[in-house]
Design goal:
It contains four helices and 20 strands. With about 425 residues, it is α+β, with helices and mostly antiparallel strands.
């Protein structure tokens, strides 16, 4: 109705009348005032938002800078810790190392049942202080025929590394006479599953001694090299059975019933693939056991003892040849429970051929062991091969052609299968 009236008035009075009328309306003035107030509030809010945005931007920049400082400090601390750990390892005053080997075998001998055995575990421990002192020790744990475990201390020495050419050892050490006992007897190093006759226990080759030893090496002109070992030890003991010396026992004893033994080995390498060695020892030996009964010190006369040996190793491409001769002798001793002395002698020659890059190696070995007792004497041919699962793990198969006293084990041929692993 009001709109109709306004329209009629506008038609009568003309178009200029309407704005004047609206401007004179108090309601419109109030609205305009309110709009201006709202615009002012909006402007104020925009200003406040701008100030807040600037504050937030400043805080964000400060926080970013603080985070950067924290990250840099953390990185600095991490680098310092890493450098400290690296320096600790690089400049370590001591180091510990565990190594060793193990083996298991199967033996099928003529006239006997085939049996599994030869289960051994030989952990080797090394502890070194700086480049001055090294302690090394090997244990041998072996299962016997009754299922019990035999534990033997193969060697244990404290080594003073005097310089690059001289090391002083004190304790129980493997005999340095020859090559086999000190370098080749571990199952994972010996290429065949058995030792040559005479190079085992109670044979012609000394096994170990207790004392002190100096060893090392010297470079020579034209790529030649010299190595040496000199020792003083308690020496071997003698065992008698039925009024005869049964064997020279050299397992390394802390008891010394006579004068010490002095010996050593000298090795010469005119070229890197050839080594020639000579060994020898002299001293006294005394009977300490007769028919299984221990003899008190001083009840038996000391007798002269001597050992002499030579060894050779040559490598050419995939072929390796080695040989060794060792002899132990004790003199007669009047007034002893076993007056007559004796000589134990053993030698072997071995050839091994690696089939190129293939993991197969064929081996042939001839051995001869001579003893005062016929039941110990033995000639042996052995052929075999080893398959290298890895450089430190192998399967070995061998067959022994044995010639000894009839109706004894030394005359029985046998198959041997062995799995060995060094770590």
């Amino acid at each position: 109705m009001h709109i109709a009236i306004l329209c009629a008035a506008s038609a009568v009075l003309g178009p200029g009348w309407l704005p004047t009328a609206l401007a004179a309306d108090p309601t419109v003035e109030a609205l305009e005032t309110r709009v201006k107030e709202l615009e002012a509030s909006i402007a104020e809010l925009r200003g406040e938002l701008g100030r807040l945005a600037e504050q937030n931007s400043s805080k964000a920049a400060a926080m970013k800078e603080e985070r950067g400082q924290i990250s840099e400090e953390s990185a600095t601390v991490a680098r310092a810790e890493a450098a400290s750990i690296a320096a600790e390892w690089q400049n370590a005053t001591s180091a510990f190392h565990l190594s060793g080997y193990g083996a298991a075998s199967y033996v099928d001998q003529e006239g006997a049942n085939g049996e599994f055995g030869g289960v051994t575990f030989n952990p080797i421990l090394h502890f070194q202080y700086r480049n001055q002192i090294l302690w090394e020790s090997e244990l041998e744990l072996e299962i016997d025929q009754d299922g019990a475990t035999d534990v033997t201390l193969e060697y244990s020495t404290i080594d003073w590394l005097i310089n690059d050419h001289v090391t002083l050892l004190a304790g129980k050490f493997l005999s340095p006479l020859g090559q086999f006992r000190q370098n080749l007897h571990p199952a994972w190093i010996n290429k065949l599953p058995s030792a040559p006759p005479g190079f085992g226990h109670d044979g012609a080759a000394p096994a170990a001694d207790v004392g002190v030893q100096l060893r090392g090496g010297l470079p020579l002109p034209r790529a030649a090299h010299l190595n040496y070992a000199v020792y003083v030890g308690n020496g071997p003991q003698l065992e008698a059975d039925g009024g005869e010396i049964h064997g020279i026992v050299s397992e390394g004893f802390t008891r010394n019933a006579d004068d010490p033994v002095v010996g050593g080995r000298l090795g010469f390498l005119p070229m890197p693939n050839l080594e020639i060695g000579v060994s020898g020892a002299v001293g006294k030996a005394t009977l300490t056991t007769a028919d299984g009964v221990a003899i008190e010190d001083g009840d038996e006369p000391a007798r002269d003892y001597g050992a002499l040996g030579a060894d050779l190793v040559y490598r050419w491409k995939d072929l390796e040849g080695r040989g060794e001769l060792i002899r132990q002798k004790v003199d007669d001793a009047p007034g002893s429970l076993a007056e007559e002395g004796g000589t134990w002698r053993a030698w072997y020659l071995q050839l091994a051929y690696r089939l190129g890059s293939r993991p197969w190696e064929g081996i042939v070995r001839y051995s001869d062991f001579n003893s005062p007792h016929p039941e110990q004497r033995q000639d042996q041919w052995m052929i075999g091969f080893e398959y290298l699962i890895a450089s430190n793990a192998m399967v070995k198969l061998g067959y022994e052609f044995n010639d000894g006293l009839s109706q004894t084990e030394t005359d029985a041929n046998r198959w041997l299968l062995q799995l060995a692993y060094g770590y």
